[in-house]
């Protein structure tokens, strides 16, 4: 028997959470992590503009992020009050 745990991670798009795309079909995204009682969020989101690969970890002192997007996608990571522009390829941050 397998047990699955679902982690809330919002990528705002019309198809994912009922919020309009920031720009046509994943051309622009806004990532807002909601950790709940978890300390790590990770996954792979396939899109028509290539995959969005993400890993976010937190501890009581910092937030560590790794997000990879293609050159066909732009967007922002918004942890709490901060807004960080995502560039094509790998994005790593420690906040």
What would you note in describing this structure?
- The protein has one helix and eight strands; from the N terminus they run βαβββββββ.
- The chain has 95 residues and is mainly beta.
- The radius of gyration is 13 Å and the shape is globular.
What's the gist of this structure?
By secondary structure, the protein is mainly beta. The protein has one helix at 14-17; strands spanning 9-11, 28-33, 40-45, 52-58, 63-69, 74-77, 84-86, 89-94.
Task: Give Rg in angstroms.
Answer: 13 Å
Mean pLDDT: 77
Low-confidence stretches: 3-8, 12-20
Can you tell me the number of structural domains?
1
Share in helix: under 10%
Report the CATH topology name. Answer: Maltose phosphorylase, domain 3
N to C succession of SSEs = EHEEEEEEE
Summing up helix and strand content along with how strands pair, one would put the structural category as mainly beta
Helix count?
A: 1
Report the CATH C-level class.
Mainly Beta
Order of strands in the sheet with most strands:
1-2-6-7
Oligomer: single chain
Beta strands, count: 8
The coarse overall form would be globular
The CATH superfamily label reads: Maltose phosphorylase, domain 3
Key terms for this structure?
single chain; 95 residues; mainly beta; Maltose phosphorylase, domain 3; 4-stranded mixed beta sheet; 1 helix; 8 strands; disordered N terminus
Give the helix/strand layout.
Blueprint: E1 9-11, H1 14-17, E2 28-33, E3 40-45, E4 52-58, E5 63-69, E6 74-77, E7 84-86, E8 89-94
């Amino acid at each position: 028997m397998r047990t699955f745990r679902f982690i809330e991670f919002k990528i705002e798009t019309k198809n994912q959470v009922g919020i309009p795309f920031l720009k046509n079909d994943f051309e622009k995204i806004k990532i807002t992590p909601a950790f709940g009682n978890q300390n790590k969020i990770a996954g792979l989101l396939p899109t028509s503009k290539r995959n969005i690969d993400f890993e976010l970890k937190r501890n009581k002192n910092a937030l560590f992020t790794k997000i990879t997007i293609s050159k066909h996608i732009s967007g922002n990571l918004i942890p709490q009050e901060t807004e960080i522009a995502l560039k094509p390829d790998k994005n790593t941050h420690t906040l």
